[in-house]
Specification:
Blueprint: H1 2-15, E1 21-25, E2 52-62, E3 67-77, E4 85-97, E5 103-107, E6 112-118, E7 133-134, E8 137-143, E9 150-156, E10 175-181, E11 184-189
Antiparallel strand pairs: 1-11, 2-3, 2-6, 3-4, 5-11, 7-8, 8-9, 9-10
């Protein structure tokens, strides 16, 4: 009887679901340039008309909950001129990986984040710009507003020449250079 009770208790314990635990984790920054090359409308030049740039990210648990990826989509659209437009994504970047036995069940809060900003016009010499530049365009770092897991985004918008890359090299082309994150809370199980 005692042996049967021990066996039943062991089977029940094995079948019991693990309890979720909330933990706060730091996400790795994305430092790989995000560089659109497709001309979806207009030409390769924004010509001082923006562009209006939109970054969308979604945090997704993957690999059986052993990691989190940020799925990133970036678009840049001329605000005048001939309506030049480019887009890339979604691209997936691993931003967190479990180091122990835990598995991510979910992201606490909204897993979606968006930033929209308007580029300043590129400028041809002579002009004065503060901070780093490439081909007459300012490399800017924008801080995200409250209520999002995005911390800041570094980008290059309009330049003095063509803006939509035709060679895959981000130098002097409209691109995102870095995405940094605030810590996020996740629910994990062992």
């Amino acid at each position: 009887m005692f042996r049967k009770l021990l066996l039943t208790t062991a089977l029940l314990a094995a079948a019991a679901p693990a309890l979720a635990e909330r933990v706060t984790v730091n996400l790795s920054s994305i430092t790989t340039p995000i560089l659109p090359t497709a001309v979806l409308a207009g030409d390769r030049e924004f010509g001082g008309n923006g562009p209006r740039m939109t970054l969308d990210t979604v945090l997704v648990p993957t690999a059986g909950g052993r990691s989190i990826v940020a799925q990133v989509t970036f678009r840049a659209e001329e605000t005048g001129g001939d309506g030049s437009f480019t887009r890339i994504g979604p691209l997936s970047f691993e931003v967190w990986r479990a180091t122990g036995a835990e598995r991510v069940e979910s992201i606490v809060g909204n897993p979606n984040a968006r930033m929209v900003w308007l580029s300043t016009p590129g400028c041809v010499w002579p002009c004065s710009q503060l901070g780093p530049t490439e081909d007459g365009g300012s490399i800017m770092t924008i801080t995200a507003g409250p209520g999002t897991y995005l911390s800041e985004v570094t980008f290059l918008g309009d330049t003095a020449g063509d803006d939509i890359s035709d060679d895959g090299n981000p130098h002097g082309d409209t691109s995102i250079r870095a995405i940094r994150f605030h810590p996020v809370t996740i629910e994990t199980v062992d």
